[in-house]
Design brief:
This protein is of the alpha/beta class and 419 residues long. The protein has two domains: 155 residues, Lyase, Ornithine Decarboxylase, Chain A, domain 1 (Beta Barrel), CATH 2.40.37.10; 243 residues, Alanine racemase (TIM Barrel), CATH 3.20.20. Helix content is 29%, strand content 25%. The protein is built from twelve helices and 21 strands. Strands 4, 14, 15, 16, 17, 18, 19, 20 and 21 form a nine-stranded mixed β-sheet that branches. The longest helix is centred in the middle third of the chain and has 19 residues. The protein is globular.
Length: 419
């Protein structure tokens, strides 16, 4: 595996590994998601190294990028997977993931989803409520199986991230409240068809400071002690995902500091540590290439209207997220302020506001960087634009890992009425 910068600029052109983005856009068309295989694998290995414990497991959060080829690459490295639906389970199995390395979160697991996961023999259900214990126990009993269970704790920790991606506060729907954890653990131990594995936490996403993770560690150790006193053995501790990445200029944590923040609180815990990183692995591994359709100078604002919008990358519209946007080929003209906007008929359809760049010409290719996490996986066909194709770059080699959608794909599952 080559050490690689993934995406970088050289002599006025932007590259993915050894290939100029502008050439990829010409060959595959836009909008297009481009991924760097070696960047992804390097990030995965960084995490494995930081965990530094053969009994622990990195479980990739499938929701951040669920393309089969991405899952397959990580499965081949030995990665585990964090899933939140029957669909994600099916994807992981299809990509060759090991069911015994799958952990399953989610507040609304249905009976049929639970059944599929039980039959596949996954590692752990991260159970989020008392009714979920009941349903899972009953189902496992019917199937003659034992369901391995971790309790998802709502740790009442404010991750201090965007309010739409914070999960560990009292008012959030996730997990079981702190004061009910012992009761929940007793119930799991008592129910015949459940096996108590341990505790699960996930406090939010895009977290860039260590203190929320230290507080997570404090909550965890407190619960570990309480359960020990109650005579209940905790074999696994899953600290979730949430490790933030740099989108602009923000300071971020290294994987070592992230894990250190939690581990420094844990004292003598000797069980299995699980982590569920998504964004850290995939964000910087991907860019969205888009072409300028028009440059539209206006009275108060200038607009670069491009062929990718909130349908291709929802994050700016949904969370006011910032993504760097760079020309694939530099222009020498004086930069001016402009908004990069998509073709969707909504005012919120903006990819970047007030960006300083030379006015682009129609046909110019722009790259929206750090778009590999929650990019393609949140894309839609809104306004009936086909979703982008996805390609994987390995040095000078390219593989198409999702073909472009056609117009027929837009209505492939729809039926005209008969009269
Ligand atoms: N584990 C659980 C239970 C989660 O709910 C999540 C993310 C993760 C792990 C992975 O978190 P990460 O390491 O990626 O931060 N669409 C939003 C992010 C939503 C995150 C949802 N849960 C965005 O684009 O920022």
């Amino acid at each position: 595996m080559m050490k690689t910068a993934g995406f970088y600029s050289k002599d006025g052109r932007y590259y993915c590994e050894q290939l100029p983005l502008v050439e990829l856009a010409e060959e595959y068309g836009t909008p297009l998601y481009v991924y760097s295989k070696n960047y992804l694998l390097n990030r995965y290995q960084e995490l494995v190294k930081a965990v530094n414990d053969p009994q622990s497991l990195v479980c990739f959060a499938v929701k951040s990028n669920s393309n089969l080829a991405i899952l397959q690459l990580l499965a081949r490295e030995g990665s585990g997977f964090d899933i939140v639906s029957g669909g994600e389970l099916a994807r992981v199995l299809e990509a060759g993931g090991d069911p015994q390395k799958i952990v399953y979160s989610g507040v609304g697991k249905t009976r049929s989803e639970q059944r599929a996961a039980l039959e596949a023999g996954i590692a752990t259900f991260n159970v989020e409520s008392f009714p979920e214990f009941k349903q899972l126990d009953q189902l496992a009993g019917e199937l003659g199986l034992l369901a391995p269970v971790a309790i998802r704790v709502n740790p009442e920790v404010d991750a201090r991230t965007h309010h739409k991606i914070t999960t560990g506060k009292k008012e959030n729907k996730f997990g079981i409240p702190l004061n009910l954890i012992e009761q929940a653990a007793r119930q799991v131990v008592e129910l015949d068809n459940l096996q108590f594995m341990g505790l699960h936490f996930h406090i939010g996403s895009q977290i860039t400071s260590s203190d929320p993770f230290e507080r997570l560690g404090q909550r965890a150790v407190d619960l570990l002690n309480r359960l020990e006193t109650a005579g209940i053995e905790v074999k696994t501790l899953n600290i979730g995902g949430g490790l933030g990445v740099c989108y602009d200029q923000e300071e971020t944590l290294t994987p070592e500091r992230w894990l250190q923040a939690v581990r420094s609180q844990l004292g003598s815990f000797e069980g299995r540590l699980l982590i569920e990183p998504g964004r850290y692995l995939t964000a910087g591994a991907g860019a969205l290439l888009t072409s300028v359709v028009y440059y539209k100078p206006s009275v108060n604002k200038n607009f670069a209207i491009v062929d990718a919008g909130m349908n291709s990358l929802l994050r700016p519209a949904m969370y006011d997220a910032y993504h760097r946007i760079v020309p694939a080929v530099e222009r020498s003209q004086q930069p001016s302020r402009l908004d990069v906007v998509g073709p969707i008929c909504e005012t919120g359809d903006t990819l970047g506001k007030d960006r300083l760049m030379p006015p682009p010409e129609p046909g110019d290719c722009l790259a929206v960087l750090e778009a590999g996490a929650y990019g393609a996986s949140m894309a839609s066909q809104y306004n009936s634009f086909p979703r982008p194709a996805e390609i994987l770059v390995d040095q000078t080699e390219v593989q198409l890992i999702r073909r472009p959608e056609t117009y027929q794909d837009l209505w492939a599952k729809e039926r005209l009425i008969e009269q």
